[in-house]
Amino acid sequence: xxxxxxxxxxxxxxxxxxxxxxxxxxxxxxxxxxxxxxxxxxxxxxxxxxxxxxxxxxxxxxxxxxxxxxxxxxxxxxxxxxxxxxxxxxxxxxxxxxxxxxxxxxxxxxxxxxxxxxxxxxxxxxxxxxxxxxxxxxxxxxxxxxxxxxxxxxxxxxxxxxxxxxxxxxxxxxxxxxxxxxxxxxxxxxxxxxxxxxxxxxxxxxxxxxxxxxxxxxxxxxxxxxxxxxxxxxxxxxxxxxxxxxxxxxxxxxxxxxxxxxxxxxxxxxxxxxxxxxxxxxxxxxxxxxx
Length: 291
Prior knowledge:
The chain is mainly alpha-helical. It is built from ten helices and seven strands. It has helices at 7-20, 27-45, 47-61, 70-87, 93-116, 136-153, 164-180, 188-199, 217-237, 256-272, and strands at 5-6, 128-129, 132-133, 157-159, 203-207, 212-216, 289-290. Helix 5 (93-116) runs antiparallel to helix 6, helix 5 (93-116) runs antiparallel to helix 10 and helix 6 crosses helix 10. The longest helix has 24 residues, at 93-116.
């Protein structure tokens, strides 16, 4: 059974509980504490992605001529961040392996999509494959890292989670459609319908601090996809990559990309089940620590 926290996370959690437990109780205070802790846990789950996005933003606002391409700096920094998260026990090795798989899956799609002209990387890079700078795979890894970490940090359990084999088939179909729609019909609306059928009755239960909360899974998926879409707008504004319609100046990423991220996120959800199999609600709680 998956453990909730690494040893470092457990130490942080113990210290936070020591502070929060001394606060007065009451409906307003309890609600405020849950809200603040929810935000802090979300930020912690986004650690990898947050660091990457902050680096992209800072270097877009100021980038001195130091003889190093921005894309190459991002690639080197991403390697260092990933290594640091493992060394300092902020991420488990099992999670790192799944993130690596998602990295490879994302890079494969990048190679095809850039060749097809779906988007471009406008700057030079030494570390690249064809038209794809190698940092780009880490942007997919950020999504995988978030999905893996959030399940542990919030001790998520499920009611009526669909059979994993059906979700795996769905993930394969989604990935195939990202390629095949360039040549044949785009099946995304059928894929959305399949997601609704599989997850329509599924509910996730998550603990913030004192209380467990409930959310329909379809809504949870939409909120995560919306967050990624917002991050993508920041990324394209920083010209980390751009779409053809943004070549002459930044414009808002189309709302249609929200659907693409919704589908891509489903692949990440399925990959995470390889590390954290979905636990039925009411099952024995997982232990808090892992090394």
